[in-house]
Amino acid sequence: MRTSIVTSINWQAGISAAKKVTDRWNQPGEPGGAITLFDSTSLKGEACGGLANLTTNEPFSIESVVRYASVTKHIFATLALLRSDAGLSTDDTLGQHLPQLKGPMAKVTIGQALDMTAGLPDVRETLSLLGISVYNATDADALIDFLASDGSLNFAAGSEISYSNTGYRLVETILKQKGILFEDLLQQHIAKPLDIAFHAPETWFDIVPNLVPGYWKSQTGWQTSAAGLHLSASGSLTGSLRSLSGWLQSLLADVGPGEGVLKHLSQLRFLTNGTPTAYGLGITHSKIGENQLLGHGGSHAGYKTYFLLDPQRKVGVALVSNREDTASYSALLDVMSALLETPLPARSTALVDGLYTSLAEPYWLSVDNGVASYLGASENLYQGEDGSSVSLSAHLPMRLKMNGTAIEGEIGLARRYFIPAEPNDCLPMIQGRWFHPESKAAFDIEGDELKMGIGPLRASGKMVSIGQGRLLVNMPDGPWQKSFCLYFQGYDVHVISNRSRVLIFRRDECRISWEPTA
């Protein structure tokens, strides 16, 4: 009979690894964060660094209230599926509850909407491709109308795995239409029973008691972050690291509000071809050595969060931060590796650096010193057991190898084949205005620049050809750079990014060019 390998728990090594992370934030006038280590009954250690507020110089602590961002997802899935009276089944289609949805979107199941296999275009990324800034405020109902107006998917539901926040927004809308609010469920089933200060504001501008600012670093220094998108249950939750740790301890203990949650949310999910995924319902599977871990991360402008749990040993680690540059996942991997006394796999640089494109689709891959970026989303690469270069991500799994000068393997559990990009000069044929009829958005191509927006908000980005009518564009979007591809086909151009692949702009043949008279 095969026996599982049980590693020891080294709390002191884990705490030392955590302090190495937080000590880097102890720089004058810089934001920071905190890390906790715990079992199912008590906090075993904590590490804090940096400031919670750059105006008051308040130091960051495990009491500092932050935005958890997408760590919200597993809590919403818990409440929607296990604690509400909504009567939802993961086999229900979205269209059964939201009849305004059209086309393939209506046929997506609730399970697919929550397990990242639905192909639902991410709202925030789609708005960004239309030229709507991260700072522009949006209304929940208007966003649902926007989604329902088309109904297209990034890919056939169940054919691959790719991260999107939209499924959680849609399932929350189902609850709202039944008169069930996320905040009410949160207080009734988690916050009050555990006596913790969880809240789920719907907008960035709602007042949250004791919320510390988030920060990002510009060329001129640290800036206070902001975002206009209606938050939704994909990432609205706020609280302190102490509160988050208390909830996670409830999950490990499998009692009270956390009873049965990990078992339900972590059940294996599958693509339609039977391939198992490592993403459950708002929670991910990962491994360090033979240690099976559950966790999830979160990222809002200026905030980073992550947690990792070892349910077998009933131990966990969690991180929150109010600085945009925090690499939360890799930081917690280091802490959990030390805690379990199990080394991480070695980093891989086996893939040749460069820019690659697929043949059948307008997709691209860039490789730079052991970091692979697929459609603009980056992952660190590690040495896989079969000689492949692999990511350790459940929502963007990669398993890739060189095949001559090409790269082949899997991304998102779908087969991919890339060849080195072969640029060509198509710029003379695509000059002018391109228009998105449904949203009335437009952009202009002038020389090798794409320009989008109006008046003083007009932004521009350089275009780089990758061949076969495709150009990559990089443009600023608040604290980030957005990367996307323009794929020209006659009078149409498809605008492609990692989380949004449904927009089609058309050449504006009606544009009038006014020329000065002699």
From TrEMBL:
Give the EC number: 3.-.-.-
The UniProt entry, under PANTHER family, shows: BETA-LACTAMASE-RELATED DOMAIN-CONTAINING PROTEIN, D-ALANYL-D-ALANINE-CARBOXYPEPTIDASE/ENDOPEPTIDASE AMPH
Q: Does the keyword Zinc apply?
A: no
Query: What does the record give under GO molecular function?
Result: hydrolase activity
One Pfam family name is: Beta-lactamase
Origin: domain of life: Bacteria
List UniProt keywords, sorted A-Z. Answer: Hydrolase
Q: Where is the Beta-lactamase-related domain?
A: 19-328
Kindly provide the name given to this protein in its UniProt entry. Answer: Serine hydrolase domain-containing protein
